[in-house]
Amino acid sequence: MTLDADLRSLARRLSPGARITVLTGAGVSAASGVPTFRGPGGLWKDFRPEELATPEAFAHDPRTVWEWYDWRRQLVARCRPNRAHEVLALWSRRYESFALVTQNVDGLHERAGTQNVIRFHGSLWEVSCWDGCRTGSWLDETVPFPRLPPLCDSCGGDLRPGVVWFGEAIPTWALAAAERSLDCDVCLIVGTSSVVYPAAGLATEARRRGAFTAEINPEATPASGEVELALPGKAEEILDRLERILTRS
Ligand code: OAD
Hints:
Layout: H1 3-13, E1 20-24, H2 43-46, H3 49-52, H4 55-60, H5 62-77, H6 83-94, E2 98-102, H7 108-111, E3 117-119, E4 122-129, E5 138-139, E6 159-163, H8 172-181, E7 186-190, H9 202-208, E8 212-216, E9 229-231, H10 235-248
Parallel strand pairs: 1-2, 1-7, 2-3, 7-8, 8-9
Antiparallel strand pairs: 4-5, 4-6
Helix pairs in contact: 1-10, 6-10
Bound molecules: 2'-O-acetyl adenosine-5-diphosphoribose (OAD).
């Protein structure tokens, strides 16, 4: 089938009563200017995850870790949601049963107005107390921080970024909400390399529960051979084309 025919067949499944779950990764924000992690120009080409995105790295050198997060916060603060975020935000308001599980920490889905965003890997815009004097994380949009690491107002210890690092558990509520969202009719996997678990396992589980699964990604990934439909293309273009088909019919 041609891409056009594939898009039309997927659009038929996105009927008004359909229960839709979208799983997103860094590729969704690529057109906004946010670097991805893997592939050409990816962050993990120049930076080593074990030196920047683990609790051990933070314990060893909190300033270096914070410099990297502070740089990313400054970069993302200058970025705007793109057409992919916009279409998903429209769908989140249009479909009664819609969930978006994102591995992205940039907050662009929320800034586009998407409802029911489940942040699987936390947020660049939240912080928490490294010493745990307060439970949970909270919003702090200071850009840039005047001092690194920033300090906790309550105990004076270091704050840490409100993201999930390698070796850490996905927040219980996010895992539970994501698992609930897998009881859906259509599960779209958009802009993720599908190599980081447990996020990469969500699409398989949705399919096991009976969802029609479709991937949107310009490159083949480990998920491409498992989904019912692999749409080779950029999220901002494919989602725009889908939305145009949906609003024409
Ligand atoms: P990756 O950088 O691993 O993958 C980005 C994917 O986006 C690749 O498969 C690209 O082909 C695809 N891509 C690039 N441009 C695109 C576009 N315009 N439209 C659609 N797709 C595009 O990012 P993630 O899969 O999100 O975790 O990475 C998963 C996790 O690994 C991240 O959350 C982060 C990282 O290490 C932590 O830091 C814990």
